[in-house]
Amino acid sequence: MAKKMDETTRRRVRAGRMLLAGKGCTEVALAVGVARQTVHTWKCFLDEGGIDALRAMGGKGMPPQLD
Asked: Residue 16, CB half-sphere, CA atoms under 13 Å: how many?
């Protein structure tokens, strides 16, 4: 049975599919509700490993600055 994707993973996969369809990073960022730089980061993962790389990213964000 396939593992259910969380909202963040679904957003990355949606963005990846839009990028593969030829959409620009700015357009994708507006569509999925993230910063343009975030889409650029996702695009690097997409270029290296495809949609599966976006699914496998997990919670690789910045660590919290406050304790």
From this structure: 22
Residues 6+ apart with CB under 8 A from 13: 5, 51, 54, 55
Angle 23-35-5 (CA atoms, 0-180°, nearest 5)? Answer: 75
Among 45, 43, 49, smallest CA distance to 29 is for 43
Question: For the whole model, what pTM was predicted?
Answer: 0.79
Residue-wise pLDDT tens digits, 40-60: 999 999 999 999 999 888 665
Beta-carbon contacts of residue 25 (< 8 Å; ≥ 6 apart):
19, 36, 39, 40, 43
